[in-house]
Amino acid sequence: MKKVVHFGAGNIGRGFIGALFSQSGYHVTFVDIADEIISRLNEEKAYKVKTAEDQPKVTEIQNVLGLNNMKQEEAVIKAIEEATYITTAIGPNILPHIAPLIAKGLKGRLDSSNEKVYVIACENQISATDILKGHILKAMDDDATNKIEGTVHFFNSAVDRIVPIQDNKNSLDVLVEPYFEWVVETIEDIPTVEGMTKVADLAPFIERKLFTVNTGHAVTAYFGYLDGKETIDQTLNDPSIYEKVKATIEETGAYLIKRYELDEAEHQKYIKKILGRFQNQHLHDDVTRVGRSPIRKLGAEDRLVKPLVEAKKLGLSYQNLASAIAACLLFDVGEDPEAAQLQKMIQEHGITYVLNELSLLNETDEAVQTIVEKYESLKAEYRK
Ligand SMILES: NC(=O)c1ccc[n+]([C@@H]2O[C@H](COP(=O)([O-])OP(=O)(O)OC[C@H]3O[C@@H](n4cnc5c(N)ncnc54)[C@H](O)[C@@H]3O)[C@@H](O)[C@H]2O)c1
Ligand SMILES: O=P(O)(O)OC[C@@H](O)[C@@H](O)[C@H](O)[C@H](O)CO
């Protein structure tokens, strides 16, 4: 049986990537720091994935076990030595922290074998695998680095399936939306994983996904939060927010259509499908999950700022994206460490500084002025 080591036994790890591997006949070793999940995986050795729809489909996921990377380093190294795939769904900010352990595992493996292994980061971030590779190489000695070529293959990917925070913390079972897409950038003949789509150039796929699904999701979350809504589907029941979200992903759409020569009618269909996915009433996806980590989401390469900058360069409208960024700046959820840090930064230094520091937008840029105006007007409207 082929093996995969998957870092991150959370929602997307168990509910999507780990599940696809298991269903494709692989043994899956989940690596995580959450003791309860790891113990449960080792006790139960299986869990269920249930689709969020009127007639849910339930799939039993087998051949799984768990390792804690903080406590079982040697076992993780051994698992990496035996794996065909190494994947992650852990959050982009965590990649630098797991890279040294992956490097140790790869080093051990390269000393004794030249069997191919494929590394794929499944995160909502452009070039996440390249970034992970950079951290792995930093942690490796020259000898191991020289042996990587031709043996360790790194592929970028785009991963799409909405998996909300799970209600029952005492169960490994995962509720997921029925839709999924996993696009991996390679033309190599690699071991089959059912549900994986291979493409030669990931750029149009990841930008289309990140700047439609994730931009639309973020706008919904930030306006939903401001308006006191709890979930994404509840937020979109409000026609005025629905129109804002649609208008924002039409702005990103205009950029994507121009940049990648997409078919306009096809892209409109894509937008409609995405809005329909957000409206799934069985998901109960919290606005606080979708809006999480606003500092990451304000990054220059992320779902709000990058399409604004690109739309502006092409002379396209970016007014709704500017509103979305302004709403993100008002995301003040106490339990979210990045939201707390963001609010502290705004209080101490002001919006212009924050946009410069986090989004690399220069204060002389007229988009900054637009965002500041929208921020002030949203603040007046919602924080009476
Ligand atoms: N949930 C979704 O709808 C969805 C869809 C597509 C992509 N993604 C992406 O997948 C990634 C994971 O998201 P998620 O929703 O599954 O998050 P999650 O919080 O459910 O899962 C992340 C897991 O990583 C573990 N973790 C954190 N730090 C760790 C460390 N240092 N070492 C080992 N494990 C650690 C956590 O304990 C948790 O189990 C993110 O990049 C996210 O953007 C999520
Ligand atoms: O995971 P994040 O924080 O990058 O973004 C939150 C959601 O938009 C995201 O998890 C989506 O549910 C997912 O990307 C759908 O494929």
From TrEMBL:
Residues 201-378 form the Mannitol dehydrogenase C-terminal domain. Residues 3-186 form the Mannitol dehydrogenase N-terminal domain. Gene3D superfamilies: N-(1-d-carboxylethyl)-l-norvaline Dehydrogenase, domain 2, NAD(P)-binding Rossmann-like Domain. GO terms for biological process: mannitol catabolic process. GO terms for molecular function: mannitol-1-phosphate 5-dehydrogenase activity. Its EC number is 1.1.1.17. It holds the Pfam family Mannitol_dh_C. It is an enzyme of class 1 (oxidoreductase). One of its GO terms (cellular component) is cytosol. NAD(+) binds at V4, V5, H6, F7, G8, A9, G10, N11, I12, G13, R14, G15. PROSITE patterns: MANNITOL_DHGENASE. Keywords: NAD, Oxidoreductase. It catalyses: D-mannitol 1-phosphate + NAD(+) = beta-D-fructose 6-phosphate + NADH + H(+). HAMAP family: Mannitol_dehydrog. Belongs to the mannitol dehydrogenase family. This is Mannitol-1-phosphate 5-dehydrogenase. It comes from Niallia endozanthoxylica. The lineage of its organism: Bacteria, Bacillati, Bacillota, Bacilli, Bacillales. The gene is mtlD.
